[in-house]
């Protein structure tokens, strides 16, 4: 499998996951207060939304690369 087909498959999978899930969340640790040796940290939950157009666009580009990537000329 050459690099173009690999990138195409990755784009197709990423686009499909973006359409299916619509986003992802992660936890970020931040320091709220630090007084001398005492430190108070807070865990914040962040959400990243993936736009519909980005998922569709990744799938279209991945499909085009998969179809057209093998042709030379």
Features:
73 residues, alpha+beta, two-stranded antiparallel sheet, 2 helices, 2 strands, 49% helix
* Backbone CA Rg: 20 Å
The figure for the number of domains is: 1
What distance separates the N and C termini? Answer: 19 Å
The share of residues in helices is: 40-55%
Indicate the proportion of strand residues.
25-35%
Output the helix-strand order.
Answer: HEEH
Shape: elongated
Low-confidence stretches: none
Largest sheet: 2 strands, antiparallel
Overall structural class, as computed from helix and strand content, comes to alpha+beta
Strand order of the largest sheet: 1-2
Mean pLDDT rating: 89
Topology overview:
Blueprint: H1 3-21, E1 23-35, E2 38-49, H2 52-68
Antiparallel strand pairs: 1-2
Helix pairs in contact: 1-2
Question: Can I get a quick summary?
Answer:
This protein has two helices and two strands.
Task: Explain the overall architecture.
- It is a single chain.
- This protein has 73 residues and is of the alpha+beta class.
- The protein has helices at residues 3-21, 52-68; strands spanning 23-35, 38-49.
- The chain has one domain (3-68).
- The chain contains two helices and two strands; from the N terminus they run αββα.
- It has a two-stranded antiparallel ribbon with strand order 1-2.
- Strand 1 (23-35) and strand 2 form a beta hairpin.
- It is elongated, with a radius of gyration of 20 Å.
